[in-house]
Each structure stands twice: as structure tokens, then as C-alpha cells.
Amino acid sequence: DSAEASRSVVFENTQRCNPKCLRILLENISGLNIDVDFTVELIPEKNVAVVTFKKNIDTKEFVEKCSQNKRVREFNMTARLLESTQSIKAENLPESISSDYLTVYFESARNGGGPVADVQLFPEENSAIITFCDHKGNS
């Protein structure tokens, strides 16, 4: 459904492409500027990077361009749209954080949030799983 296409693209198998090289490669493929037009979040423990576009682009077309790109193929990387989810994980939380505070914070429109259905705290990890009523509330 192109009207609901994700603004984020997941790159898997990124271990052979260092972060700076990946950023330049993404600029080359998209014709856009990092930090101005898109952001890159690296998840090194999973050899994954998530690219989120700040401006409206055809992300399906971008994924197709990536799959045909010689350098992407040489690095054995794959690209796919990030699927929508109703839950997110918040990490590095202060020890004193409460589920009520997280609920109010993530329901704030100013923070890009929406109605929260549930908050599960994991104090031993200083993290929480926040589940939204609607997947649109977790940008």
C-alpha cells in the first residue's frame, strides 16, 4: 500500500561497509544529503542500519535502486522497507523512570507520539517496551 509506505529502510549485512562508507553510498544512491534529508541509525550488534527519510521520497523505488546497485551487491547488503510496528523499545532510561512518565512522554504529539496502550519496564536493563494503540504513533 504505497500511501502507507514506510519512510524507513532497513539495510542488513552491513558489517563489510564501515559507517562513513555507508553514509556516502546512501547519498550517492538517493541523491540526497545525510542529516538534511535522511538519518542513519546503526545497530552494530545486528549488522543492521535503519535509514529514515525526512522528506517524502518513493522508498519502494529507493529499495529497488539499492538492490540493483553494484556496491550494495559487492557488500552483500540487502535493503527492505521497515515494517510498521505498534511497539518500540526505549533504552538507557534513568533508574527512577516510571511507566506513568513514559506513557505521558510517548503520548505527547510534540514528541511524535500517540495513544499508548501499555508500558513494560525492565529496570535491570534500564529499558522499556512501549506499545501504542495505533502503529502511526511511533515515529
UniProtKB/TrEMBL annotation:
Residues 5-83 form the PARP14 second RRM domain. InterPro entries: Nucleotide-bd_a/b_plait_sf, RRM_PARP14_2. This is PAR14 polymerase. It comes from Quiscalus mexicanus (Great-tailed grackle). The gene is Parp14_1.
